[in-house]
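Below is the data:
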Amino acid sequence: MVKILTRKSLGTQQVYDIGVKNDHNFAIKNGLIAANCFNKSHSTAYGYVTYQTAYLKANYPLEYMAALLTANSGDTDKVQKYISTCLSMKITIEPPDINRSGVDFTPLDKKILFGLSAVRNVGQNAIAAILAARDEGGEFQALGDFCDRVDLGTVNRRTVQSLIHCGAFDQINPNRNQLIHDLELVYDWGQSRAKDRASGQGNLFDLFGGGFSSTSTASPIKNAFEMAPKAKPIADFPPQEKLRLEKEILGFYVSDHPLKSLNQSTKILTPINLNQIGDRQEGSLICAVVMLNGVKKVITKKGDPMAILQIEDLTAQSEAVVFPRTYERIHPLLEVDARLILWGKIDRRDEQTQLIVENTEIVENIQMVMVELTPHQATTIEEQDRLRTILKEHSGEKEKAKVPVIGIVQAGTSRQLIRFGRQFWVQDSMSTIQALKNASFTAHIQQLHQT
């Protein structure tokens, strides 16, 4: 391709949209060659499409967001972003349901129902077999009913396990651990019944129930699944494990999120959402409450260890960098699936926004120093100076001061919380409490996640 060296305005002229099959080079005056020198004005078309999508989002939000989720179901990051958008629009995303979900994300009862096509290990053939069995015989009543009616040659054991782990059977039995244990017995039972039907043979229970015919393919007797074997009763997975397995199958949390229970209590630390990082100025100091999804240890050219973290919150997934000096101090806390509070700064390089971690703590370990103040102590300059001096003495090194300090002003039945700035956070809660008590201040320790 030859660069155009000169240009000359010819004023207003008619233009044509020229399309050619092969070469897109055209000779112009003075022997110059121009590449792609034809006008293709798309602004009107783009404007029209923008108008259409804006109209749909404003007037048919459920249908619009369901279509958007379906179109991007293979991209975990985009799906999570759109789910976050749905939450901001007060649209609930329901987990997959073996009795209601279709192939795609579906608007249903002012909610969006998760589509089976977005569930890992569940292929199109398996989905078709499940929907065909459901259309023919109605809703599945139990795991045994499901394994008795679907084609287990198409719907394999791993597929059923994935459906259980993501919550697709929760409306039948919310105890996912029990279903997994039952599956070990029920799946084999379902295969055995399928073989009997295929060979024209029935089992003893079919004969007594009257559901077997030697002259045609027998249909299962009503409630035959009640005879399916079951494992011994067992407690459900712990909540964290249940959500971990759900995320493993769906790529993100749907039925709940490990950080939801912390949403209110951590607001006292004024954290930001991960989807807001790109809006912050470079060098800004921020705090974020996150789930740690992955830790990639890296060795620098000097031989020092550092780490690249994969993190997420209720709004987005992101990446964070832990440089060697910080890594040496905090690496014992960097465990996958940990709920962490990160402190760091915004860094932009190579047109990418990164979070440089300066400090972290496990959410469950975060304590707060609660100082109960009388109106006199809260408004008297001398008392304020005494309190400020004690806190500054116990702040220690800035990077190690991770204990927030909260003032509680009690006046009659009125109770007001005062959040002290980051510069007044302390390093050791116990010694700070003792110093405050020695100075006649009433103070105690409180766990952050209990607020």
